[in-house]
Amino acid sequence: MLEIEIDGQKLEVPDGSTVMDAANRLGLHIPHFCYHKKLSIAANCRMCLVQVERAPKPLPACATPVTNGMKVQTHSEQAVTAQKGVMEFLLINHPLDCPICDQGGECQLQDLAVGYGASSSRYQEEKRVVMNKNLGPLISTDMTRCIHCTRCVRFGQEIAGVMELGMANRGEHSEIMTFVGHTVDSELSGNMIDLCPVGALTSKPFRYSARTWELSRRKTVSPHDSLGSNLIVQVKHDEVKRVLPLENEDVNECWISDRDRFSYEALNGEERLTKPMIKQNGQWLEVDWQTALEYAASSLRRVTDEHGAGKVGMLAAPYATVEELYLGAQLMRGLGGGSIDTRLRQSDFGLDGKLSGTPWLGMKIADVSKLNAALVVGSFLRKDHPLLAQRLRQAARRGTRVSALGVSGEDWLMTTHARVTVAPSQLAAELAGLVKAAADIRGVAAPAAAASASVSDAARRIAQSLIDDGARAIFLGAVVQQHAQAAGLHALAQELARLTGATLGYLGEGANSVGAAVVGAQTGLNPQQMFAGDLRACVLLHAEPELDAANPAAAVEALKRADTVIVMSPFKTGLDYADCLLPVSPFTETSGTFVSIEGRIQSFHAVVRPKGETRPAWKVLRVLGSMLELGGFRFDSSEQVRDEALSGATGWLPEYKLGNTASDVACATPAAVEGLQRVADFPIYRNDALARRAPALAATRDSAVPSARISTGTAQAAGLATAKRVRVRSAAGACELDLTLDDTVPASCVRVSAGWPQTAPLGALSGTLNVEAV
Amino acid sequence: MTFSLNEASRAAIDREVAKYPEGQAISAVMAGLRIAQEQNGWLTPEAIEAVATHLNIPPMAAMEVATFYNMYDVKPVGRWKITVCTNLPCALSGGEQAAEYVKEKLGIGFNETTADGRFTLKEGECMGVCGDAPAIIVNNTRLCSWMSREKIDALLDELK
After folding, report:
1. What is the ipTM of this complex?
2. pTM score over 0.90
3. Does A168 touch chain B (CB under 8 A)?
4. What CATH number does domain A277-338+513-586+615-628 carry, 3.30.70.100, 3.40.50.720, 3.40.50.740, 3.30.420.40?
5. Is B61 in Cβ contact with A163 (below 8 Å)?
6. Is A172 on the interface with B (CB under 8 A)?
7. Where is the 4Fe-4S His(Cys)3-ligated-type domain (chain A) (predicted)?
């Protein structure tokens, strides 16, 4: 520990601290631009100059290590003169355009110029002008305003993992830019907007739409991934104008993904459903709530009476709130045995009833940073869990050995210990190889399922890393959960965890997939059984089976066959199979609760009033329950629903409810598959109803029209090396797509993304595809 | 415009990479850019990208370096690039006049190329031979000292 005195206050700081760290601990503010606690030290803005006793000149607080007995003055005459001098230099080339600058009112330069700037400029010469750059659909630039702090560059290098922006040229000609013709495509790029201390990088969708002081700030929780990122939603005239991160070191740190940040556009979009609608004689009619609810209740009642509640089902998105799912489950139960489920994308339900609790991450999110080794199985990590990927990336920089076993060799932008990329059908073989390797290292007999597995060098490396001392974990991603052998793969992973001593965890799919399981919203028939069976009445809560189901083609078939389909959604969706649309609130217009993958219970309030005649879904379900004269719907507030649903738990789910240990599940055996196997991902902005409808996100490269992606070798073997456009056929249907050569796709596989209407006719997410040139 | 590093260039870059610890290929970026420039005459964006790809670094990281140092040419140059030092010691010893004389002889200004594509004139930074002022460097490699009018005449004649 070192002793330091800043502005007369003494404190002790750990070795290696900088003067800035020490000042922050005392709550003293030293003006700065380039310094950021999460980024490396650049010390290039020079704004944080302070006076250090016995130093011949002012020193930058952010880059000066504390020495024992150091005495620092942050507001002495010398320090302030230096800071004012720096400010004068910074303002020389900075345009005086605050009134038309989007950053005005929330600009660090503006704020500090009030304190350190002169009232007029001594600089009479021409100011420099810098051409704006096209960084893509999310970030708008005004490069003349740039003060070259390089926060955006360092963010790319260190946090996002890819250096997309850089500082070209030298001295007065320095400019922040991308490589010729490139855009900023990182899934975390929006954070650069927050980091930019001036108005050089601003939000393109938000541009010129509001001033910071007109906005009210409200807290909420992101519905887009299972992390539960904390958000600040900024609101003007009951409209969401912007979404920013709310710092929570244990969850999202100070970042959010672009999906969290920009999908709000959908909330104000054209596709919003604002009035209840009923289909009569093939015509959609706008009706009032009373009529719509009576219609919905009577059709549910009629189907139940005619066919029994076993033919009634509710399918909810995994980002429906705890309250909605609990009341949905109540409704189905009240009808006398209806089914409810949220796992639309799953196709193997062999783990149902065999797990020791609700599948979860197996640890706290913050503990992911402390892992010594991690194996991620079957995940499009960066796109499915952008911020968890970020956390692992930081961990990898500090030495965590991150390994991957998956169906895509996409760059995770981090140093990986070992990577194995195989066709989906080979995941079982590779996991068995890992189990065998672990057993060999431990010197014990491998379980029967893995006894004859072949062990690759990579498998040995991974197994060793999972056995070595320290915290280590095995995470199962969406590919495993959606896999046709999900239960068998789980059993293998569990064996691996047992042999290595690593913690087994799930990277859950939706914001509330843990909550859904806990409140009983996965009971009765599973989605596959519902679609395959004789479903007569179906309630869709936020869900869009035409894109989200494990087999969209079969799902739509089943829904069209049903007598009644009631859609509860914020959007006009399902017009071709539904007969009643009830406009319900998206996450910004309802109070609710999400339980994240770490079991963290986060409740939130509505941030805006429901649009049009939209009503919170929990209230709609409450009314439906009462109209159907079912018991258990007497709630006055969503808090009451939550307390009953979660048995009064707040903060964290009790540990006993969570568990990833399955008993009595057979290990998967590798299946021999002939032909090209489908690798299906849900692209980052095709993953939920909101993100799909956000125009800015739809314009990004991640939202490029789906193509059939195939490795060069496989293309040659299949005679497709020169094909441009192909017809892709599955057992269920066919579609025509562009062919892209992509060597991250494993051999004898073709990657066709799900979540798009273009590829929905192909049906199942797995299986073989026939690809021929057209 | 396409560009690919030829075999000799790739081998030369790999030799440079081998000078640094493993995983530090980025340290060879300056050498890599020099080698690509020697192959191509100047650094097109494609050439910069090719070097970055070869070193497995982000293209922008190579671009930063290529645009920072003035001996890398990110715009086309003529057959002979004449760089005249006009930093203070040279300027005090006739560097400016030397530059004026070259301009007059070639009929071009700084950062311009003669119509026949033979000469490009650049204003240079200190070449470390202030004692030899005025200094001129040809194609980044041939350093010429005490460049009087006569010596400039001789140099330009020789390069024709």
Report:
1. 0.91
2. yes
3. yes
4. 3.40.50.740
5. yes
6. no
7. 78-117
